[in-house]
Description:
The chain is mainly alpha-helical. The protein has helices at residues 2-8, 15-23, 36-48, 67-74, 90-95, 101-117, 127-137, 143-160, 164-167, 171-177, 184-201, 203-222. Helix 6 (101-117) runs parallel beside helix 8 and helix 8 (143-160) runs parallel beside helix 11 (184-201). The longest helix has 20 residues, at 203-222. It is elongated and about 100 Å long. It starts with a helix and ends with a helix. Residues 64-75 and 218-223 have low confidence and may be disordered. One of its GO terms (biological process) is spindle organization. It comes from Miscanthus lutarioriparius. This is TOG domain-containing protein.
Amino acid sequence: MVSAVEDFGISNLKLKDMIDFCKDIDIKGFLSDVKQALLSALDTEYEKNPFEGAAAVPKRTVRVLDTASSASAGSSDGLPREDITAKITPTLLKNLGSPDWKVRLESIDAITKIVEEANKRIQPTGTADLFSALRGRLYDSNKNLVMATLSTIGSLASAMGPSVEKSSKGILVDVLKCLGDNKKHMRECTLTALDSWVAAAQLDKMVPYIIVSLGDQKTGSEG
């Protein structure tokens, strides 16, 4: 106890709890090896001379954060994110819509590589146009490219974190539509992308898009 006070001081102790502890008669149990006569003498002296000395100066300083600050710190790990604006070139965006499926695939793979080179941590700057271009690939006639696009979108969500929800311009609705594909592998790729999205932006941010997607499916089935 003495060592803890000397090391950390008393600034982080709750005063009421400390007082209640010290008032507890069982505290004398810590002095079980002291003779009764000496205990009686100590009690008498304590009553005569209550402690009025200076508090021990702590050897270490412990910073205490309030609940709000702690919650705020928990929402971001503080690690840097890379600005990939310069890498999202007009040529890259144009090639995503190329009539040659090989060029389209190369462009999708190039985006994944950009994310990996940024250690999978990117800023939202410049990604709005990128998501707009990727949206078209979710309706590609080549299903393999659609699945590659879903994987890339999931990677972008993981790399961007919470900011992906505002930068993606509603592409989540288009992602959700892929759940209706008759191929099991396509549905699995979609779920993987959605898992990444939930981890990045939280489920409550996705609810409006889910509602829109369900509404579109209902309209399609009735129409």
